């Protein structure tokens, strides 16, 4: 039997696959007060006041802004939590998630 026919074990994976990361996106609306958006960003995403203001202004001017990137489970939980804080206060504040490309 020629060497080329020697059966080899399939290579075992040496590296653990990294989980796909998901973006949390803040959507602009016409009703939620700016300061409320900032408070939610600080509370749910632990941003500084300065960072929260920048994110809020970007969403306000461009229509949306990426807040942060997490594993899918964490991204979805935080987006839901932040959206619920808006709803509880009577605002249409909206956070969505999207897998990173
Ligand atoms: N556009 C809102 C206003 O003028 C403020 C706002 C900013 C709301 C960002 C949502 O994601 C948002 N009061």
How would you describe what is shown here?
By secondary structure, the protein is an alpha+beta fold. The chain has one domain: Ribosomal Protein L30, Chain: A. 43% of the residues lie in helices and 21% in strands. The chain is built from 3 helices and 3 strands, in the order βααβαβ. The protein has a 3-stranded antiparallel beta sheet with strand order 2-1-3. The longest helix has 17 residues. It is elongated and about 70 Å long. The relative contact order is 0.25. The protein binds L-tyrosinamide. L-tyrosinamide (TYC) binds next to strand 1, helix 1 and helix 2. L-tyrosinamide binds next to strand 1, helix 1 and helix 2.
Number of helices: 3
CATH second-level architecture: 2-Layer Sandwich
CATH superfamily: Ribosomal protein L7/L12, C-terminal domain/Adaptor protein ClpS
Instruction: Kindly report the oligomeric state of this protein.
Output: single chain
Largest sheet: 3 strands, antiparallel
Strand arrangement, largest sheet? 2-1-3
Overall number of structural domains: 1
Count of β-strands: 3
- Rounded average pLDDT: 93
Helix content: 40-55%
CATH topology: Ribosomal Protein L30, Chain: A
| SSE run | EHHEHE
CATH C-level category: Alpha Beta
Structural class: alpha+beta
Question: SSE layout and pairings?
Answer:
Layout: E1 21-27, H1 34-45, H2 49-62, E2 64-71, H3 72-88, E3 94-99
Bound molecules: L-tyrosinamide (TYC).
């Amino acid at each position: 039997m020629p060497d080329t026919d020697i059966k080899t074990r399939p290579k075992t994976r040496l590296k653990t696959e990294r989980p796909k990361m998901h973006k949390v996106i803040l959507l602009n609306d016409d009703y939620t007060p700016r300061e409320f958006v900032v408070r939610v960003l600080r509370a749910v995403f632990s941003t500084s006041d300065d960072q929260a203001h920048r994110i809020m202004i970007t969403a306000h001017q461009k229509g949306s802004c990426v807040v942060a990137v997490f594993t899918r489970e964490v991204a979805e939980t935080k987006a839901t939590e932040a959206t619920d804080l808006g709803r509880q206060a009577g605002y249409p504040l909206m956070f969505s998630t999207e897998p990173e490309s």
